[in-house]
Amino acid sequence: MGGGVLPGRLRTLALLAVLLVVHLTLSKPLESLRLLLCRMAFSPLAPLGSAAPDARPVLDEADALLVASAQAGLRARAAAARDEISLLPVLDLDTTRGRLILGGGRRAGVRWDALVFSGGVCVGIVDRVLPHLSRVLLLHARGARLPVRVEGVGRKLPGGLLELHGVLGGDGERCRLQKAFLPEEFRAGDRLVTLEDEGRPSVPVGRVVTTGVRPEVALSTSVRGASLLGVDGAVTPPEVADLFEEKTFRVLYVARGRHHGAVIQGEGAGSLLSGSAVHAAGILLGVVTGTGPGAAAVRPVTFPGQRLTVRLIREDGASCLAVLEGGGGEGCRVAAWIDEAWSDQDVLVVTAGGQDLVPPWLVLGRGRLHEGGLELKAPRTWPARVVVSVFRHGGERGRLLGRGS
């Protein structure tokens, strides 16, 4: 055996035996150890033998046109009520704390205290701005404050007043008029709008639903499911390349069948974040699920336990958001709906971007929704090289989320 060194194929079999023992004997085997053994087992072999990569996947022309149509329609609807406003992607949404992070900061023209809109309705205020990202305080958040007035009072007010003004504030769960002149004059049903400011017209905020010293207010819209929000004064919306750096990796090994997935190798693979998107030619192949020295494991979104927010696109270009959970094979469970009226529809499924920290509009495949499930016909071809989208501004995101600040 030449100094005790096993030939390539025998070494592969030996390492696979060790890998099997590690998997069976440890209740929670170390992902990095498994990946290292995989790397040692398969890297000596000529192009991976029977596990060789496939040809580069090709995005269907009809799918590409449908994605473009949905993109145009979404931006048109989001900007309909605000002609000259930049739309920024939502990266993190914490409804409990009433905060979200937008993919755009000082370099995009975002300024502190700017109003934030969804469909022409004010939903929050920018409370912190960094070079590439900004944080928004939603109106129901504790500490949020917004001057408002009643639109079209339509009744006689004491002292000949023509308008009713107040300051809307959140307590962490709901909104109330925290301060108001003549609070007893506010009536249930009064429509509240923002104040005009330097040529900016008033926009809707909500309606008064209770009376008293601190009337409660129901907001006109929610940011639940929103992937793009408008920011007053922002002038340069970021491109996907401003938020993600694309790195190329070699496909080291492809697993077929029930445990479909891959191991990728390359400089920096061991430091990739779990959840990073792995794709080729505009098609999502999977997400990083674990890392080891110089390598990373990738699983498809259909793998059990995987969870991803996606956009469903019909043939007419209409789209809605849903959350998919992997069910194994080609099946996914629709874990959370934004629009439940889409049952029994044939759809194209793409990434929604945002909170999953994956680029938007990567194609997962086509499928049909039925009884809370989605049979997703996703591409299963793995080229020799793939691209991983790495979020560029993890440090800023951590600061805005309250880590280390």
Q: What does this molecule look like?
A:
This protein folds into three domains: 1-44; 70-237, Rod shape-determining protein MreC, domain 1 (Thrombin, subunit H, Beta Barrel), CATH 2.40.10.340; 243-395, no CATH class. It starts with 7 loop residues before the first helix and ends in a 5-residue tail after the last helix. It has five helices and 24 strands. The strands form four sheets. Strands 1-2-5-4-3-12 form a six-stranded antiparallel beta barrel. A six-stranded antiparallel barrel has the order 6-7-8-11-10-9. A six-stranded antiparallel β-barrel has the order 13-14-17-16-15-24. The protein is elongated, with a radius of gyration of 26 Å. Helix 1 packs antiparallel against helix 2 (31-42). It has 405 residues and is α+β, with helices and mostly antiparallel strands.
Quick structural gist:
The chain has 405 residues and is an alpha+beta fold.
Topology:
Elements: H1 8-25, H2 31-42, H3 61-79, E1 86-94, E2 99-102, E3 115-118, E4 121-129, E5 134-138, E6 145-150, E7 165-170, E8 175-180, E9 191-194, E10 204-208, E11 216-219, E12 228-231, H4 240-243, E13 244-255, E14 261-265, E15 277-280, E16 283-292, E17 295-299, E18 307-313, E19 319-326, E20 331-337, E21 346-351, E22 363-370, E23 373-377, E24 385-391, H5 394-400
Antiparallel strand pairs: 1-2, 1-12, 2-5, 3-4, 3-12, 4-5, 6-7, 6-9, 7-8, 8-11, 9-10, 10-11, 13-14, 13-24, 14-17, 15-16, 15-24, 16-17, 18-19, 18-21, 19-20, 20-23, 21-22, 22-23
